[in-house]
Fold this sequence. Notes:
Elements: E1 7-17, E2 20-30, E3 36-37, H1 44-47, H2 60-65, H3 82-97, H4 107-120, E4 124-125, E5 130-131
Helix pairs in contact: 3-4
Amino acid sequence: xxxxxxxxxxxxxxxxxxxxxxxxxxxxxxxxxxxxxxxxxxxxxxxxxxxxxxxxxxxxxxxxxxxxxxxxxxxxxxxxxxxxxxxxxxxxxxxxxxxxxxxxxxxxxxxxxxxxxxxxxxxxxxxxxxxxx
Length: 133
């Protein structure tokens, strides 16, 4: 049986060029037999894939065509942006200047302390949960 060699990477090598390390494949192998080469194999399937059955059993390439890549919220990892953090700290320091002591630097705590201070007519101490004298 004749093999339709499909490439896989066997070895990586590195060159130093202009102070930068460049990585490259130095040895390829076939996924179906034991032949090796310094260049990737030209596969008949790769150059002319048969998509006649992709309506019922799609290949990876056909599946990937409809794939939408978006980092979305994944990049935040639950951390707030520097701008939002700076805004919260600004609100916290504004409250401190007015004599109000919020429970934390988080905006909901700052808003609650300011609201209680306005309703009570006195500066609120969120740490001790009392009004300041």
